[in-house]
């Protein structure tokens, strides 16, 4: 193209005359985006959100958020003449009497699952690569907030159809809300407009679900994107990549086209799931009544950990001075969520305190190179995973022929032991992988070429690793340690005096000590281990002089 | 040790220089490695023109498939009607299938376009520290202080204090407005609609229950109060499970004179978080809540034998009217359903009250 086509050039000048967009574009059209498969995980969440907005808007055109009782007169034979809420009747209408309604409803549900799942794996990627470190702590906090809001958005969303399954979820929500000390009954009465279930909760959840929460989500997601744009993306260590540059493809045209294609892939996946994988067949559940429930009721996957926590808990309840503290509801409803969300939110700041590291970080850590962080992360994943599995303990019991109560009792032990074991195993794996890296750098890779030496010895030729791989391995960074050793007079340095300071020095040493240091330029250091593993076949070690 | 680290000069050509399983530098995942011809800009490797032409054919085909699938989507909307389970299934498959194919083909086309027709990029851009330089910070700091002084906010204490004073009640106003979201709980959680003489009817059919007809031990019914069959608020607290036992099966936890001929009525609302405790195992007489598996012993006053529920399911005193239909003798004497702060140890109070009566 020798000249920009008239319509584009004309529009561009028109806009630039009025907005001065030119200087923005000048800076940003060729903005460089680094590449790594794990950077795509957050995009799944972003695109799912866009699809949620599109499909959700479609659904609002027919959905009636009302708990008013009507007699069903639609086309679904088994429920004809049954009394039900307008919400449930209109959901049946969308499913069976609006062309594409079933598809869009199922896509909306699948997109919601993918939205939360995408956020979770994205958060894990950011956590395990240390991409939350300065200057990105604020964006990390926005992310934690987004995840929390997404759970609330999911909860308000799947309560809307008012079928028997969604009602069970709502009932549990009520049971949890009413258990809160002092304010519980008031919160419940304000939420439901009186006693459960009342006639208000669906329309109130509707407002929260389609206006308030998505509005906040949209604002926070925009802020998340802007911060990512301004701070530039982190990159994995590799050739030519430093803390002071970004290496990758330009926004225009490559990244733009890739992102567009990825949006379409996400859209296609969700459309495929909505078409071929039935989800939430509300017509099978029937309308909600507080008197009935079906066995095997399960919430959406992201609520499973709360369900598991509720199932796991022993029956603790305290009565004192005429008041009741239902710990068997309070602890599982608040503690796991509190540990996970607060833990996520505070982690960057706790790490900074422990390491004393206030530098900017733009090169991502490989998880093995921060073994304590990775192990803590895996312990948390295990904690969450065990709760999540126990949220389906009735299904596990049925399918694997384990006694129902046994699953719960095993879970009560596993919730404490599992994370500890996961921590230890992860730590060992990290150290093992670090040793392997060190080995590759100092001894090279096995070439598969066996060589016979003049004196008859067979050896396997080791060659230095390819440059890109070597650079990737050399990207390992030392984790700073707060100086904690006493000086010659036995006085510890400033900042690590007193019990908290001593704890900090200890934690810092534990967190930052590098058990497998890479030596300088990655050449053999003479004491690296693994020498014995070399495939030397033949006469064994001979004095060098014989050559 | 042997010197097996260094390959001889003739080894260079044939020894692999990487860990097996990792892609070579610059390898494209789709297609072959582009031949590095003319490089216009550093960091931009132009694609092989021959390969790009081949790729164009693939992309064109994919875009055309997307076009056809898009047309098929619109056609499916017109052709396939909804209105029954089967018709909806067909319409769903046609609409969703064509949409999926269209999006997938379009996405694949763009990917092939990017990977094989656009250059490979390895551009480098500098990062700058997020922090502004000291001059800027100094200027902002000075400007802030100057502005604060000019506004008089610091100097005029009275104004500042009354401004804060003015903001406080207005900040509370939105919270005050929320008060009418619901009534105050009062004592409503302590009562249900059951009262003396109210008939027990079967959930779903609304039939009253003749005690003489409900006579097979081990039988169970889900029961609601007559006149409230469709009142969800009433049902959320008043639904019962009715179980028939041989009188000798009943243990001390069950209040015998609240039963009728071995028929016991317990609240169906689980004392954990309020799911209907709907599963009953006849051989063990266990009532199980499917939500969180709280298990209650039906023969022994529905006391908890496993799970997170902390209290037994409350028992309702029942009897029969003149015609032999089951009726309630009174309301529950403890609150049903999940625990709440103001509940207190209602069981102890109720036991005491029952002790005083007898």
UniProtKB/TrEMBL annotation, chain A:
<feature type="compositionally biased region" description="Basic and acidic residues">
    <location>
        <begin position="516"/>
        <end position="547"/>
    </location>
</feature>
<dbReference type="GO" id="GO:0046872">
    <property type="term" value="F:metal ion binding"/>
</dbReference>
<keyword id="KW-1278">Translocase</keyword>
<keyword id="KW-0813">Transport</keyword>
<keyword id="KW-0479">Metal-binding</keyword>
<keyword id="KW-0249">Electron transport</keyword>
<feature type="region of interest" description="Disordered">
    <location>
        <begin position="514"/>
        <end position="547"/>
    </location>
</feature>
<feature type="transmembrane region" description="Helical">
    <location>
        <begin position="109"/>
        <end position="128"/>
    </location>
</feature>
<feature type="transmembrane region" description="Helical">
    <location>
        <begin position="320"/>
        <end position="349"/>
    </location>
</feature>
<dbReference type="GO" id="GO:0022904">
    <property type="term" value="P:respiratory electron transport chain"/>
</dbReference>
<dbReference type="GO" id="GO:0005886">
    <property type="term" value="C:plasma membrane"/>
</dbReference>
<feature type="domain" description="Cytochrome b/b6 N-terminal region profile">
    <location>
        <begin position="11"/>
        <end position="237"/>
    </location>
</feature>
<dbReference type="Pfam" id="PF13631">
    <property type="entry name" value="Cytochrom_B_N_2"/>
</dbReference>
<dbReference type="InterPro" id="IPR027387">
    <property type="entry name" value="Cytb/b6-like_sf"/>
</dbReference>
<dbReference type="GO" id="GO:0008121">
    <property type="term" value="F:quinol-cytochrome-c reductase activity"/>
</dbReference>
<feature type="transmembrane region" description="Helical">
    <location>
        <begin position="402"/>
        <end position="426"/>
    </location>
</feature>
<keyword id="KW-0349">Heme</keyword>
<keyword id="KW-1003">Cell membrane</keyword>
<keyword id="KW-1133">Transmembrane helix</keyword>
<dbReference type="GO" id="GO:0016491">
    <property type="term" value="F:oxidoreductase activity"/>
</dbReference>
<keyword id="KW-0679">Respiratory chain</keyword>
<feature type="transmembrane region" description="Helical">
    <location>
        <begin position="172"/>
        <end position="193"/>
    </location>
</feature>
Automatic annotation (TrEMBL), chain B:
<dbReference type="InterPro" id="IPR036922">
    <property type="entry name" value="Rieske_2Fe-2S_sf"/>
</dbReference>
<dbReference type="GO" id="GO:0005886">
    <property type="term" value="C:plasma membrane"/>
</dbReference>
<dbReference type="GO" id="GO:0004497">
    <property type="term" value="F:monooxygenase activity"/>
</dbReference>
<keyword id="KW-0408">Iron</keyword>
<feature type="transmembrane region" description="Helical">
    <location>
        <begin position="59"/>
        <end position="80"/>
    </location>
</feature>
<keyword id="KW-0679">Respiratory chain</keyword>
<dbReference type="InterPro" id="IPR014349">
    <property type="entry name" value="Rieske_Fe-S_prot"/>
</dbReference>
<comment type="function">
    <text>Iron-sulfur subunit of the cytochrome bc1 complex, an essential component of the respiratory electron transport chain required for ATP synthesis. The bc1 complex catalyzes the oxidation of menaquinol and the reduction of cytochrome c in the respiratory chain. The bc1 complex operates through a Q-cycle mechanism that couples electron transfer to generation of the proton gradient that drives ATP synthesis.</text>
</comment>
<comment type="similarity">
    <text>Belongs to the Rieske iron-sulfur protein family.</text>
</comment>
<feature type="transmembrane region" description="Helical">
    <location>
        <begin position="92"/>
        <end position="114"/>
    </location>
</feature>
<dbReference type="Pfam" id="PF19297">
    <property type="entry name" value="QcrA_N"/>
</dbReference>
<keyword id="KW-0479">Metal-binding</keyword>
<protein>
    <recommendedName>
        <fullName>Cytochrome bc1 complex Rieske iron-sulfur subunit</fullName>
    </recommendedName>
</protein>
<feature type="transmembrane region" description="Helical">
    <location>
        <begin position="162"/>
        <end position="178"/>
    </location>
</feature>
<keyword id="KW-0472">Membrane</keyword>
<dbReference type="InterPro" id="IPR005805">
    <property type="entry name" value="Rieske_Fe-S_prot_C"/>
</dbReference>
<keyword id="KW-1133">Transmembrane helix</keyword>
<keyword id="KW-0812">Transmembrane</keyword>
<keyword id="KW-0813">Transport</keyword>
<keyword id="KW-0560">Oxidoreductase</keyword>
<keyword id="KW-1003">Cell membrane</keyword>
<dbReference type="GO" id="GO:0016705">
    <property type="term" value="F:oxidoreductase activity, acting on paired donors, with incorporation or reduction of molecular oxygen"/>
</dbReference>
